[in-house]
Amino acid sequence: MPEYKSSLTPEGYLFSVAEAAVKKPGRKDIALIVSEVDAAIAGTFTTNAVKAAPVKLCMRNIRSGRGRTIFVNSGNANACTGARGLKDASEIASNISRHFRVKPSLSYVCSTGVIGVPLPMDRIIPTLGILLDNASDYSFLDVAKAIMTTDTFPKIASQEIKIGNKTGVIAGICKGAGMIEPHMATMLCFIITDIAVEQKTLQALLKDSVKRSFNRITIDGDMSTNDTVLLMANGILGNRPITADSKYTGAFKSALDKVTYELARLVVRDGEGATKLIEVVVKGARNETLAEKAAFAVANSNLMKTAIYGNDANWGRIMCALGYSGVPLLEEKIDIFFNGTQVVKGGLSNNKDKQATEALTSKEITITIDLHSGKSSVSVLTCDFTEEYVRINAEYRT
Amino acid sequence: MPEYKSSLTPEGYLFSVAEAAVKKPGRKDIALIVSEVDAAIAGTFTTNAVKAAPVKLCMRNIRSGRGRTIFVNSGNANACTGARGLKDASEIASNISRHFRVKPSLSYVCSTGVIGVPLPMDRIIPTLGILLDNASDYSFLDVAKAIMTTDTFPKIASQEIKIGNKTGVIAGICKGAGMIEPHMATMLCFIITDIAVEQKTLQALLKDSVKRSFNRITIDGDMSTNDTVLLMANGILGNRPITADSKYTGAFKSALDKVTYELARLVVRDGEGATKLIEVVVKGARNETLAEKAAFAVANSNLMKTAIYGNDANWGRIMCALGYSGVPLLEEKIDIFFNGTQVVKGGLSNNKDKQATEALTSKEITITIDLHSGKSSVSVLTCDFTEEYVRINAEYRT
């Protein structure tokens, strides 16, 4: 578990968690993030055609660009639950809005867990009172813990930013583990800041940041119905709102990128059953789209992922994945490196398999592929593929 | 292992196997199929941009439409081996052509096994003499055994066809197990018949048959560099060659389809680590392409495959895969059945998860998905996903 200083939480936010036994009793499984004032809010959502009820609610609310509260439950995705699912999500939002006396559109609801089972409203609604009443008793880290499903540690990251003589904070939490895949954000991620940012700029910065972090990780190639990233900026710091061309836009962007990348990395490190973090770097591609396509073909190959797990410098499986990626390439130009050891030179064995096998015993593997056909490069994060992944998913319903 | 009557081998073919210790000693690992006369030959090959040397050789030879011999080695794919790989494949073909005094273009060479290691020509060439000298001592089943890699049983299928007062035979063998994926044929498949078929018709019938058999199976979504299907028709039966509109075209097509489908099914049944055969049927799609896309998204989902392995009627994972398949769909119209038990009705739980869980203990699972948005349907075969798949691929180089 990464270290986290509670001092690195932005001002003007309250947190709460409670036990509603959504799936089963024994842990805090509902959580609340409350901004003390209305905040600008940005979001990115799953592109899966089957969207969970809370995703639909968030997508509707976010049109206003404003937010106040985020409710999250783990243990149940409230997906494939039809009209009842939407009604349940709305009812939770209404209760929270009433409590804080804010417009219903300012209350966001997110869910993660098993698909196709209605939310146990008979347990959630009574517990909601406790959650709301204790809204100043908990920390952001407590929320990070409450939203875990098959995660083995809470995921939290933060950055400080100097804005004039004041210091603002961006902090984020997320949950990952399974159903993590390329074309979308991770399942649930919440980022909060006390820095004032104009909403349009906030949305643009978030979209760009997600593209190069959560959209460049893959654990099992399965895209969730619930993927959501929300970024709230309540402006409590009192700075002049950051716009596209402000003095501090660059600093904010850089800090936000660090937070999203760190969280994305934590998600992959905690991939279901994973023992190794794998970074697939594709260089020398004709453009970024092709570089990404090649990198994902390699990162999603079960055969590559099992080879890395087994410390097997089986670069043939990488050549094979590149070949079926759909990216035009010249076999005889390809170079491949495992953590700096060149295993393929001009499409052929470099006779360094033995050294490479040793390199693979490391917990962090970088596979660098140079296509030598252009100047674009991309990095995608993934993890190895183990018996434990199978065990988790054959025995446990996320 | 399926039963096989040796009487169901077409006339006019000789078979041979020998031990060349391609990868390691202890088993017959090179094989030969010889037609006693020049035969019409049809083929389909991997669409992987990285093609093995023997695939390149076969693709060049098949332009003539004629063939006489097929050499196969297991244990080494002769892929990513550059100019040396091509020279090695040609040298094997030349030796065989010289022995049978046929044109070099009539000798086909196929390889399967590890990628990136040159063929051990110092062991193959001396053994080739033994292989050629014993070309009448072995059976088609012996060849099926020699081409196995991680396969647990040889795969063979055959059909008889009445042509006038004579009876012809189509028989096929193939190897599968890993690196099996949608957009291409299985790794290696050889089909032989004594029925005379005009080459253009043979190619058209094979292409169509492969499309609906080998191209509709998936084990791990990884496409090989060596996938090859060859179909030889030597015409020994003496019938008037079958053309596109002959009296017996339908019967031949139907028998060929049965052979390819049976072999494809055997490949999936023997998928690496598999314990269950899964048929994914998508009905009610707008067209066949969309039906296929939806079926493959489900069939390739690791989460679906681990759920079936664990007897978990987790239909949410199927809804999720349909959602990210890229196929336009209406969630509220979808019905899903496990072996006849309806688990999803109009996109919602049908509260039959308990019955479905029992249905899943069967060794053959049919997942039927009705999109209710058109009239096209497609069936894709796959298998479940187990710890054993990981073990095989983390410890053993195919």
Automatic annotation (TrEMBL), chains A, B:
Subcellular location, record wording: Cytoplasm
GO CC terms of this entry: cytoplasm
Pathway listed: Amino-acid biosynthesis; L-arginine biosynthesis; L-ornithine and N-acetyl-L-glutamate from L-glutamate and N(2)-acetyl-L-ornithine (cyclic): step 1/1; Amino-acid biosynthesis; L-arginine biosynthesis; N(2)-acetyl-L-ornithine from L-glutamate: step 1/4
Record-annotated site: Cleavage: 185-186
Keyword Metal-binding annotated: no
Enzyme Commission no: 2.3.1.35, 2.3.1.1
Transmembrane segments: none
Biological processes annotated in GO: L-arginine biosynthetic process; ornithine biosynthetic process
Residues involved in substrate binding: 149, 175, 186, 272, 393, 398
Main location (coarse class): cytoplasm
Gene3D superfamilies, alphabetized: ArgJ beta chain, C-terminal domain, L-amino peptidase D-ALA esterase/amidase
Class in the EC hierarchy, top level: transferase
An example molecular function term from Gene Ontology annotations: L-glutamate N-acetyltransferase activity
Entry keyword set: Acyltransferase, Amino-acid biosynthesis, Arginine biosynthesis, Autocatalytic cleavage, Cytoplasm, Multifunctional enzyme, Transferase
Record-annotated active site: 186 (nucleophile)
Top-level lineage group: Bacteria
InterPro entries: Arg_biosynth_ArgJ, ArgJ-like_dom_sf, ArgJ_beta_C
Site residues, Involved in the stabilization of negative charge on the oxyanion by the formation of the oxyanion hole: 112-113
Catalytic reaction annotation: L-glutamate + acetyl-CoA = N-acetyl-L-glutamate + CoA + H(+); N(2)-acetyl-L-ornithine + L-glutamate = N-acetyl-L-glutamate + L-ornithine
Keyword Amino-acid biosynthesis: yes
Protein family membership: Belongs to the ArgJ family.
Function comment: Catalyzes two activities which are involved in the cyclic version of arginine biosynthesis: the synthesis of N-acetylglutamate from glutamate and acetyl-CoA as the acetyl donor, and of ornithine by transacetylation between N(2)-acetylornithine and glutamate.
Subunit structure: Heterotetramer of two alpha and two beta chains.
Name assigned to this protein: Arginine biosynthesis bifunctional protein ArgJ
Gene, per the UniProt record: argJ
